[in-house]
Specification:
single chain, 266 residues, alpha/beta, eight-stranded parallel β-barrel, 10 helices, 15% strand, globular, binds (6S)-5,6,7,8-tetrahydrofolate
């Protein structure tokens, strides 16, 4: 499983404060700890208004790159901010995200191509998030066609089927898994990605639901996940699920996590 660490996100109070105060060591520690816990990418989201976002994103990225070599997943819906910060990435990173809206595709895909960045594609467009798996596949086709026209290979594209809250849409998990199955069938070279926390919105014991959803998505072949790598219980579950699903050859990652004390109950 490709782990994208979600903790450097300005919608979190402590991170917002660190951004405001330009507290580099707080951000650098988050970069270091998430990397040590197994993050292959670090999601960086300034969470600030558009006029402030460019500066804040650039500062966050500099701070992260000064501390770790882990590639960055730039989390912004704003093509101008993306264009401003992609040139400062030391390693090819990930763009989070584009969607099926024509002007977004037009602005973001050339950036992905120019900077050899992977690109997360949300399966929604100007009409919103399609209710059905078939509707989401229509958006996927539109995005895949536009990406191929720009010379972007399918394997650079990470489709995010988008999961809704089961509290208000009881079918949300099932629709997500069905979309995943159809994506694998039609775009076998493309990758798939998801966050975990939307599914549990509005319900008690959210972490329990996120855990159940993680295992379900892994069973269906999800390639990458945006999560909190510092959540030791979640990460232990992920390593165990990889091992039992045959996604961890000779249980190498499971055994390494054990040796490093990362599977222990705390
Ligand atoms: N798909 C894509 N990108 C995404 C998401 C996704 N980026 C943002 C988000 N979802 C993933 N990132 C986070 C970052 C932090 C938290 C959740 C998701 C988080 N949330 C706390 C919680 O859920 O309890 C509440 C916030 C708080 O503690 O203040 O920590 O799905 N492509």
């Amino acid at each position: 499983m490709i782990i994208i660490g979600e903790k450097i996100n300005g919608t979190l109070k402590k991170v917002a404060q660190a951004i405001q105060e330009r507290d580099a060591s707080f951000i650098a520690r988050l970069a270091e700890s998430q990397t040590a816990a197994g993050a292959a990418y670090l999601d960086v989201n300034a969470g600030t208004p558009p006029e402030q976002e460019m500066d804040d994103l650039a500062w966050l990225i500099q701070v992260v790159q000064d501390r770790v070599d882990t590639p960055i997943c730039v989390d912004s819906a704003n093509p101008k901010a993306l264009a401003a910060v992609l040139p400062i990435l030391k390693k090819p990173g990930m763009i989070n995200s584009v969607n099926g809206e024509p002007d977004r595709l037009e602005a973001v895909l050339p950036l992905a191509r120019r900077h050899q960045a992977k690109v997360i594609a949300l399966l929604m467009d100007e009409k919103g998030i399609p209710e059905t798996a078939v509707g989401r596949m229509e958006v996927a086709r539109k995005i895949a066609t536009a990406a191929r026209e720009q010379g972007i290979e399918d394997e650079q594209v990470y489709f995010d089927p988008l999961v809704m809250a089961i509290a208000t849409k009881p079918d949300a998990g099932r629709i997500f898994l069905e979309t995943l199955r159809l994506l694998k069938q039609e775009f076998p070279e493309a990758r798939t990605v998801s966050g975990l926390s939307n599914i549990s919105f509005g319900l008690p014991q959210r972490r329990l639901l996120n855990q159940a959803f993680l295992v379900a998505t892994m069973t269906a072949g999800l390639d990458a996940v945006i999560l909190d790598p510092l959540d030791t219980k979640l990460m232990a579950l992920l390593r165990a699920a990889e091992a039992v699903l045959g996604r961890d050859e000779y249980c190498v990652r499971y055994l390494r996590a054990y040796r490093e004390g990362r599977l222990a109950e705390s």
